[in-house]
Design goal:
The protein is mainly alpha-helical. Helices cover 50% and strands 4% of the residues.
């Protein structure tokens, strides 16, 4: 327990921050669905291997990292645009003639998944708080 916060609560909080950022990016995609040349974006999922380190030692499988090589550039690959955890979304179903690849149906499906994931994290958080209250002898309700 770093800083007195149980790892499960830390993981839930981290996932909720990720979902909030992802919802913001998907909303931007929807707002730019008619902008010529706009490319849909998404957010890199957080790496939860640090939570596993607490219980089983360092994770033996690391998230793969792809670096742009000269050969890839020669074939037309471009570096990902965006900063930090925001990346170009490669899970698109079509690209319009103007170069925009945002499909409203895809984005609304993602928004629904984000909403259900956030509801699940909220439920887990409430259950963990109830367990902690019970453990210290207070009412769990």
């Amino acid at each position: 327990m770093a800083d007195g916060i149980p790892p499960i609560l830390s993981g839930i909080a981290r996932e909720m921050r990720h979902l909030a950022e992802r919802q913001k990016v998907v909303a931007q995609n929807i707002a730019n669905s008619e902008t010529p040349g706009y490319k849909a974006q998404d957010v890199v999922a957080p790496d939860f291997s640090a939570l596993l380190d607490v219980h089983s030692g360092p994770a033996t499988i690391a998230r793969p990292q792809v670096a742009l090589t000269a050969g890839m550039s020669a074939l037309g690959a471009r570096p990902l645009r965006g900063s930090g955890a925001v990346i170009v979304d490669h899970d698109v179903s079509e690209t319009k003639p103007d170069g925009n690849n945002v499909t409203l149906e895809d984005q609304l499906l993602k928004m629904g998944r984000i909403q259900s994931d956030f509801a699940a994290m909220t439920s887990l958080y409430r259950k963990q708080q109830g367990l902690l209250r019970t453990a210290i002898g207070k009412s769990g309700g």
